[in-house]
Amino acid sequence: MAVCAASTTYDMVHFGHANSLRQAKAMGDYLVVGVHNDEEITKHKGPPVFTEEERYKMVRGIKWVDEVIEGAPYVTTLETLDKYDCQFCVHGDDITTTADGVDTYHIVKAAGRYKECQRTQGVSTTDLVGRMLLMTRGHQQRGDSEYKVERSRTESMSEDSAARSPWTGVSQFLPTTQKIIQFSEGKEPKPGDKIVYVAGAFDLFHVGHLDFLEKARALGDYLIVGLHTDPVVNQYKGANYPIMNLHERVLSVLACRYVSEVVIGAPYSVSKDMMDHFKVDLVVHGATPVATDVDGEDGDPYEEPKRRNKFMVIDSGSTMTTELLVQRIISNRLSFVERNQKKEAKEANLWKAMTTEDQEK
């Protein structure tokens, strides 16, 4: 059995992290993921957005992960691989360094126990932090693009050519049906399965979402998540929400181990037709307030499931919300601006050096 390891920060776990782990799992039979602690991240990269405990929980929630190593060393060593019976280490095809400029994977590379997967271009923690700090809406899908999904196949997720930096610039993620298929379980509910339906924005997928989906899944056998379009979310959230566009949110939710299926661009009101079509046995909502005047409709969006006595409100037990997460960023704005600027400059220089090297070959 091939056991592989992946180790990194996993701050604000998003579909880019999940895509790397999906690729890593495909290289072996069992995936062990090392997650650095807060002290190591602050020393080498700057302050993390999520606490180490939140990051450990988020990584465990990704469906391709078999085991998590808490407080993994920032520089991956052979001793770490051997301790957890890992044959090799996997990381994206970007360069990561310590605060002193040392390649964090130089030891395992020299030993021939290192493999690479394609980094997910067009999204990064730095990019998402930038969207929050700039309060932009350019990433949202509106008008003719509200439900749009590119139909072409792709080997890697792409970004718009107008993005400032290949890795950290505020970018436009271009989804494909192939990528959604790769993230999806592709399993239909079995006869007799209890089908649970939840809906929302699930923006900046975080531990509050994870805790809620875990409890919702425990109420049945098959969990369907309806995701509202960007204009609908903006209508009930306001400001520049959602921070992540519809298809970025689709992939983030599909990567969760508790989710069976996703409805892309679900209507705000849960209708009779929707419940009948998906054979929904129970509709669940969290403890957050429900808007009653969204998408051109007035009234309770859960009127139909309540009429059928198939509605339940559950408390995730988590205090984390997307708004609280954004507030963390805003309240520590100067620290994150400095972190982003340093990483932007470093990765721009690395990109320039790599491009020059390719041209000289």
From TrEMBL:
Domain Cytidyltransferase-like: 8-129, 198-313
Name of the protein this chain belongs to: ethanolamine-phosphate cytidylyltransferase
Single GO BP term: phosphatidylethanolamine biosynthetic process
Pathway recorded for this protein: Lipid metabolism; Phospholipid metabolism; phosphatidylethanolamine biosynthesis; phosphatidylethanolamine from ethanolamine: step 2/3
Organism: Daphnia sinensis
UniProt key word Nuclease: no
UniProtKB keywords: Lipid biosynthesis, Lipid metabolism, Nucleotidyltransferase, Phospholipid biosynthesis, Phospholipid metabolism, Transferase
Biased composition (Basic and acidic residues): 142-156
Family note: Belongs to the cytidylyltransferase family.
EC top class named in words: transferase
Highest taxon listed in the record's lineage: Eukaryota
